């Protein structure tokens, strides 16, 4: 795994040599893509698809693609919503990243710096709420009247608890100098828990908590190498007793990567307005020949799927491709004695094991179908490729005694070049109070011939009776679109790749263009989202290009689409 801030969204600096417009762009020093004086870096330029050796790559059979427009439930949040929220006191930012949770009659969707509520019929029931003022008592991401900066937030997640009937939201936050926007070394994980089963977007509807994760020995934190650090891309899970947040710990100023960190909370206490948690010291947990990263804890659709063995057990999965090449192993994790989180002396035990898997590996960048791209054309540039990031473990669900998840992977399709596909896993874990073992119940690939599918999330119905996987579909034959495939109780795909949000134009975002610090590869999500409601409907959300706005005046044209698969 490369030690870079890959989970952070990128804020748009002005193009080199171009006039700035206060209505569309801001320079923010020390952001990814900028140097330490706030100037724009111009990395080497390439618009050619990544060249990945074909030897040893998976060679799955591509699936048929159809359209299922009826599955689309709502137009989700977009770059336009992100930029225009809070009276326009927001940055242009990509990728969106994706939060989604469903409970009762309410759906909550979040992207990197805004969230909104919806009814289960698909009607949006709130205006987009900017996350920065939500977490920070009204402080704006950027105040365009005074020219001051607020905290930087990124990587939202969302969860609805089927017993407590409360929504949980999390997000990374970094402190900034209000005058310059420079990072100050302050680093937090924000947690919000709704006070009712039907919250609005006002902070008054939520209990708000903040965990200091700078971990440099100050502010009551432990002392870790290279810190102050940030808890990049916080991942969430829950079991009967606990709510869990894991992070990838990077030095804010240096190259150090301290691996996955685990924070375990008394779930019921959070829902009642009390913060009680255990910071589980990992100290760069070794895993096989590397350091554990992106340990993804599991959520479950209903309480019957949780494990109460070992005084409470929470499971997790992680990938093991430490060299960004190919691997054929994954890791299963167990957090046991989780009931102790409800006491004044929590003592959760962590164990892990490595099991063999199908081959997966670092995915290539993704070619786009040609079409108009006015921002790039105005810069006299080539059409961006899309970043498929890496092959870390995505969202994990524990249902029917099995763990379901997937990763991006390079694959060789039947009649074309190496593309991005999805490797997925269905794992059956077993834990004792101090150890965990696991077997691979099912595994496979999802691919589309000559095109790419990326950023999978699997939503699983109660008891693991069926599931659906959501992702973005893009390539020479498709503008970036949201799509899904159904899975049986065993995990095998049971139908075609179904487009539910058809992209109508190429992605045309600033992060790919060299004038904005790009290298020809546009940021395209870090993850999607899928969740089953108690009735078994799988709700999905992923990134696509609706084609309803773009440049001018917006510096990107991504949107999201929310679907419901019965």
Automatic annotation (TrEMBL):
It comes from Nakamurella endophytica. Residues 14-56 are annotated as: Disordered. Residues 1-18 form the signal peptide. Keywords: Signal. It comes from the Bacteria. This is DUF839 domain-containing protein.
